[in-house]
Amino acid sequence: MNHSAVRIRSWMAACLVVCGLAACDSPDGICSQTADRTLTVTPSNLPFRTVCPGESETMSVVVQNPGLADGCPLTLSGARLDGLDGEFTVSFTPVTLLPGQSAEVPVTYTPAVVQDPHYGFLVIEHDVAAQGNETRVPIIATGGQLADLLTSPNPIDFGEVEFGKVRELDVLVKNFRCTPVNLASASLDVAGSAGFSLLTLALPEGGSMPLALAHNASLGVKLRFQPTACGAATSTLSLTGTGADAETFWPLDVQGVGTACPVQ
Questions:
Q1: Could you tell me which residue, 17 or 173, shows the higher pLDDT?
Q2: What span, in angstroms and rounded, lies between the C-alpha atoms of 147 and 154?
Q3: Is there a single domain that holds both residue 56 and residue 126?
Q4: CA distance readout (Å), 254 to 148, 161, 196
Q5: How far is CA 238 from each of CA 45, 220, 254, rounded to the nearest angstrom?
């Protein structure tokens, strides 16, 4: 028996099973340019939060070879940034991923100044021809411009409260801007549902209104909801002041639902 011929036929059969109709690099079954090979990248984009000058943030994508156990390895040969300046860096070492294996590719953003938003791509280079030998992951960084005053919880939602009963909620209002926000007042909209009331403000230690709320500092607000009717109730927590040297108004939605009203 010609053992070499048998071995070659077995190798060719393995290529058809493991690699589809594409060629294999060697009789060991390693694939090359396999048409049905894929890689996955998660998340599909990198949205950096507000990062202020002097701060850094790192976000990563995970690249995975989702192939079956008898499938083909994938090689990640490089990673680069496209359309982004030197405030962004990517850390990467070439790697071969066996089926089921994954690798992280981290991107770090270190802005020098507050600036307009950045838009660009993390480009991951690989040997999957069916995906163009590269995968582009969108990156957006606000440059300290877009974030503002945000609440926790968000939204400000009391949920369901029975008619005549009371629920109180502690709300934190945090300044995500890179510069201080000068708050002049905080109040509930008089046009909102009557069941809501503002009880107290918890100011930073030593603070008083008007208040200069620094970057990453928070203002505490205690609210109460005592339904006066059944169904959805809404109001607005209104903050006024100045931000970026301009008069500013921050409307923050408040909601709840009154239940178990007495039968008329």
A1: 173
A2: 14
A3: yes
A4: 18, 14, 9
A5: 33, 14, 10
Q: The tokens 């071995």 sit on which residue?
A: 7
H or E stretch including 31? none
Residue range 68-106, pLDDT digits in tens: 766 789 999 999 999 998 899 999 999 999 999 999 999
Question: Omega before 43 cis (within 30°)?
Answer: yes
Domain's final residue, options 141, 176, 204: 141
Residue pointed to by tokens 């838009």: 119
Instruction: Render pLDDT for 168-181 as a digit per residue (tens, 0 to 9).
Output: 999 999 988 888 88
104 domain residue, yes or no:
yes
Domain interval for residue 5: 1-33
> Do both 42 and 134 map to the same domain?
yes
**Which CATH number do you get for residue 75?**
2.60.40.10
Are residues 169 and 210 both part of a single domain?
yes
Residue with the larger pLDDT of the pair 22 and 207: 207
DSSP annotation string for 83-98: S--TTEEE----EEE-
Q: Residue 243: count other Cβ atoms within 10 Å of its Cβ.
A: 19
For 213-225, the pLDDT digits (tens) are 888 889 999 999 9
Please state the φ and ψ torsions of residue 101, each to the nearest 5 degrees: -85, 160
- pTM over 0.85, yes/no: no
Q: Are residues 135 and 180 in the same domain?
A: no
In a domain? residue 178:
yes
